[in-house]
Write a structure and sequence with these properties.
single chain; alpha+beta; OB fold (Dihydrolipoamide Acetyltransferase, E2P); BirA Bifunctional Protein, domain 2; 8-stranded mixed β-sheet; 5-stranded mixed barrel; elongated; RNA-binding
Length: 518
RNA sequence: GAUCCGGUAGCUCAGUCGGUAGAGCAUUUGACUUUUAAUCAAAGGGUCGUGGGUUCGAGCCCCACCCGGAUCACCA
């Protein structure tokens, strides 16, 4: 495959060859010993001469200002940037000045990796700077990076960004470039990692076990969604990419663990938009001998701790709302929430009465909708968007929740809650159904839905029923959409901003014609 | 899936009424030993997303398609 090189790419390849001609390996194998990171030096060096005299840094050259025999450059490592001062006679004490005159001034490009050793000082303009005594070339960059310039406006004191690398398509397709030039993007993923670490620490401290369960499943159970299908050649059997791991985690509770949790990718063959990616991360946890009321208390404690550990406080700003994750959170049953936001109490109402209410509220309904579906529609239209502060909605209609236990006192409802924040669901939990006979009937109800054409109805999993027949303790289970939680905590409005590599259509290469599909 | 917006130099963008393709940064050459988007002088760099059409002439108008974004519908 031949590629058309731009002028700048040709120049960089010529520089690569010239570096080799100087006897310098542009891709040396040996390790470079790093003593500090840029952020450490900005924090710890107070300007006192004679401190920080043996400092070595490594990273990319991000800018360079050459003034004859002396130069300034910015070196960027994983922590940030440090200005370096390079003087010809410092790095070339002998007669041969090639290292400065040729390598540093001519052959070095923005994006190249270098290692520098020297001592810290403060320039007359007050910037902490590393004066370089030893300069080591570490890796050549053959493609120009986008040049993003940040400058502090002297009048307003605000940071202005020039020539920002903002095109979403390029940013997502070349996330590595995005991460190099946009530090705020790097920070989002650091926060994402911290969120997951803080959750793990919370669960591990309770003695619950982190587990892994199959991604390739013969039956796509545990949720209502269209799956991806694949095929195992040796077994000659079709397999599904999991849409949920719920049924496997419950099998582990049957097996005797007190608590199990899994952070896992789920795969759903459905539409994509600002809040949906075909693969996404869910955290599911199951704890024996507990119910959904206990789970609500656990979740609010856990989220308060996680948000506080990650952000330094319990309040997060999102879409102009101050969202406070400190518990306890409001708890409303679904019917109470509808009464609160519509003024109408639907308790004890018949399906026809509820349908008439929908029409009076201009909510679109059709005759295939049962009572549970109608109530869910009203909730979605009238209530959901109002739930800005973390709020538990409890006690859902039984029809839509085949894996939850029937309510201990309310007919037609199940012991389920969802946690809403900023008008969006971020967690879903049940007192888990552990009655194998009831569970079989619920699966059979789902089969009837499937026969009526519902391609998202849940599939009957005979082995899961067998596990329940051996006996499962009363258990509460919870799922949290990690991507959406991270969106909230980092203030992002697109799931693509919290996934390193969001799903994209394949890049089209020029000159190729794609065969017609279908 | 529907509607709207966008795709022009390595990057960010401008491009008037349809009449020779523009700027800043980046790149190249030169000057400069404490710069701060360094500065100064000069130069090179384009299949205007793809394919058709209208026209004497298309970045611009028309049609189709590709990619992306936003909104809506469905879903978590």
């Amino acid at each position: 495959m031949t590629q058309q090189l731009s002028e700048q790419e040709i120049v960089r390849r010529e520089a690569l060859a010239a570096i080799r001609e100087l006897g310098i390996d542009p891709y040396p194998a040996q390790a470079f010993d790093v003593s500090h990171h840029a952020a450490d030096l900005h924090r710890d060096f107070d300007g006192t001469e004679g401190t920080f005299t043996e400092v070595s840094l490594a990273g990319r050259i991000m800018s360079r200002r050459v003034m004859g025999k002396a130069s300034f450059a910015e070196l960027q490592d994983s922590s940030g940037r440090m200005q370096i001062y390079v003087s010809r006679d410092d790095i070339c004490p002998d007669e041969n000045k090639d290292l400065y005159n040729k390598l540093f001034k001519k052959l070095l490009d923005i994006g190249d990796f270098v290692g520098v050793k020297g001592y810290m000082f403060t320039t007359k303009l007050g910037e902490k700077t590393l004066r370089v005594e030893e300069f080591t070339f570490l890796s050549k960059s053959l493609r120009p990076l986008p040049i993003v310039k940040r400058v502090t406006n002297e009048e307003t004191g605000e940071e202005e960004i020039h020539d920002a690398f903002t095109d979403p398509e390029l940013r997502y397709r070349r996330r590595y470039v995005d991460l190099v030039v946009n530090p705020q993007v790097r920070d989002i993923f650091i926060t994402r990692s911290k969120v997951m670490t803080a959750m793990r620490q919370y669960f591990n401290a309770q003695g619950w076990l982190e587990v892994e369960t199959p991604i390739l499943q013969p039956i796509h159970g545990g949720a209502a969604a269209r799956p991806f299908m694949t095929h195992h050649n040796t077994l000659d059997t079709d397999l599904y990419m999991r849409i949920a791991n719920e049924l496997y985690l419950k099998r582990l509770i049957v097996g005797g663990y007190d608590g199990v949790y899994e952070f896992g990718k789920m795969f759903r063959n459905e539409g994509m938009d600002r809040t949906h990616n075909p693969e996404f991360t869910a955290m599911e946890i199951y704890v024996a001998y507990k119910d959904y009321e206990w789970m609500m208390t656990m979740v609010e404690k856990m989220l308060e701790q996680v948000v506080t550990e990650v952000t330094g406080g319990s309040v997060v700003e999102y879409s102009g709302n101050q969202i406070d994750f400190s518990g306890p959170y409001d708890r409303l049953t679904m019917l109470e929430s509808i009464e609160k936001y519509t003024g109408t109490d639907l308790r004890g109402k018949s399906e026809d009465e509820v349908r008439a209410f929908c029409k009076s509220q201009h909510i679109e309904v059709d005759n295939s909708m049962g009572l549970g579906k109608l109530i869910d529609e009203i909730f979605g239209e009238k209530v959901e968007a109002n739930l800005i502060q973390p709020t538990y909605i409890t006690d859902y209609p039984i029809e839509m929740t085949p894996l939850a236990k029937k309510h201990r006192s309310e007919d037609g409802l199940v012991e389920r809650f969802e946690l809403f924040v900023n008008g969006k669901e971020i967690a879903n939990a049940y007192s888990e159904l552990n009655d194998p006979i009831d569970q079989r009937e619920r699966f059979e109800d789902q089969l009837k839905l499937a026969e009526r054409g519902d391609d998202e109805a849940m599939v009957l999993d005979e082995d899961f029923l067998r596990a329940l027949e051996y006996g499962m303790p009363p258990t509460s289970g919870l799922g949290i959409g990690i991507d959406r939680l991270v969106m909230l905590i980092t203030g992002q409005h697109s799931i693509q901003e919290v996934l390193f590599f969001p799903q994209m259509k394949p890049e089209v290469k020029q000159g190729t014609t794609s065969a017609d599909e279908e």
